[in-house]
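Listing S7. Sequence submitted for prediction.
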Amino acid sequence: MNNKIVAFFALFIMTIGASAQIDRSQPPVAGPEPEISIDKPEEFTLKNGLKVLVVENHKLPRVSYSLRIDNAPVATGKKAGIESLIGSMLGNGTTSISKDEFNEEIDFLGASLNFGISGGFASSLTKYSDRVLELMADAAINPLLTEEEFDKEKTKLLEGLKADAKSADVIAGRVGSALSYGTNHPYGEFVTEETINNVTFGDAVAFYETYFNPNHAYLVVIGDVKYKDVKKQIQKYFKGWSQSVTVNTTVPKPNPNVQYTQINFVDVPDATQSNLSITNNVDLKMSDEDYHAALITNNILGGGGEGYLFKNLREDKGYTYGAYSSLGTNRYGASRFNASAKVRNEVTDSAVIEALKEIKRIRTEPVDAQLLKDAKAKYVGNFVMALERPQTIANYALNIKLNDLPQDFYTTYLQKINDVTIEDIKRVANKYFKEDNLRIIVVGNGAEVLENLEKTGIPIKYFDKYAKATDKPEFEVELPEGVTVKSVLNNYLKAIGVTDNSETLKSVLTKYEATTPMGAVISEEKRLEGKMVQNMFMGGNKVMSMVMTQDGATANQQPLPENMTNDMKANAGLFMELNLVDSESAQITAIESIEGKDAYVVKVSGEVISFMLYYDVETGLKVKEVQTTSMQGQTQSQEALLKDYKEYNGIKFPETRDANMMGQSVVFKLMEVKINEGVTEADFN
């Protein structure tokens, strides 16, 4: 043991000595620029038209197969979504192997295999490559397509549409594409419940037979294989794949850019933040001379944490968690420049102005030489690292084929990146970032953001959630005579029994339990007048504890910021509504339908934490609650539907809390209620 200690200290002293000889004041000298060597694939074509590219790579005993069905984009119109339905059915068994047996064998081989309507991918150890290739071919040529599986996938897709119905992100994506490209364009059409219900099982099978064939198919093989062996295997397993009748598709032109910069606003009344998308169409192809300069230009504007947008909107202003931009390429001439961010409602107008300022800046001001150098270095590093992945080599080989690129496109890639100049940045920015022809798509709560957006002086046009032009939304709430915040809250307190038991009610304890993929979760609340403690347990262990008293608030025994503490006081005490009855921070903002029944919407404003509370117009019961926390440019919301009220010692509580936490649905069931017992002052220490 003593010898080990001596050896350790000797090593420590040697390390200190070595470190002392390094001049830390000078940055390390950059190494030589890497030489890019990309293996050129060997090629052959089957009689059925399947084009095969093979790259031998014997570093690891693995092989991958990338199948690409290179059809031109096609619009499916009234049956939009058919491609998703049939694509989800592929790769789950064949006409000779059941779905379970197929998936079990893939797992047994330690392989992976997946399909979509535009192709598939498989990988495995080399020793299993023959069988995996056979399974891949069988799944492509003889997929197990059953009406039962079709109905299951249809149900899942419809449920997904319902879940996304109020998502500002989903709405923004749908409206942005529809306005930019047009709803008749393959990139602009969208899936609805109606279009999915228009699709029959026969339609899905016919779509597969028409579009999933070797007519325009490529298979890229990379890994520890020999070309001659692979050629024999592919000829054996894919020769039975028959061509289909060629469908001549003409890709329509996208909508023209707008004649003047304008805001396209979509009202989502319960949105807790605004989704911004500043966009214009571009015609940029990988084969264009501007391509490499365009990559660097976009990176400087919004490619990451060093971009103009990120530094302004997040680091300087704190409006958002992240602000980014993208500049797409497309060989059919249909792509977009897009700058995007999700921001707090109260800074929506300011975020628009600041984002436009950064777009103007890159168009008019020379970029800093060091920033340009750093952007190039980032691309060089990412490019070199990507070469370690076989899938990257497959994509590069296909890109050269599909985009009519020169054979040395990737071997000269870094040189072309490093040749980009300061003048190139300004020229490309002016060409592709249309400062005077931008759509500023804002999806958010109109009642909270429109007034300030109007003050920007930018013309505003209004659209619904499906990109149809509409009138400016009306925000004044027409309430029945005598209805006020105070009356709504008092009706709730009476409906649950608090009013009739106010003199005897001293404490409340509730416990809810939910089953999640990570195990059982128990949520416990203890309440006294002016005090509250929330505990969360997983696997019997306490993982979170939040305490609120008149002296302040803590989370896991750590003090919370003063502004957050002040906001949380609204939810302390026996019942939140007792605190809000006479509060000026609560107001009725709307009447909305919650699961088919009208509810008054009461908003409780806060600097960091705000609440949206929904009370059934007929029963007075609270049917939904949303808590939104906004800090350091990041916004997070937790919501729950409150159902099945049951009385305990004269007070009613919801038996079920159907919650949405971090995008996951979690159903909590009431397991225990205690009135005037089980709570002591010690619980809040």
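Caption to Listing S7: primary sequence and predicted structure tokens for the chain studied. The chain has 20 helices and 26 strands. Residues 112 and 122 are 5 Å apart (CA to CA).
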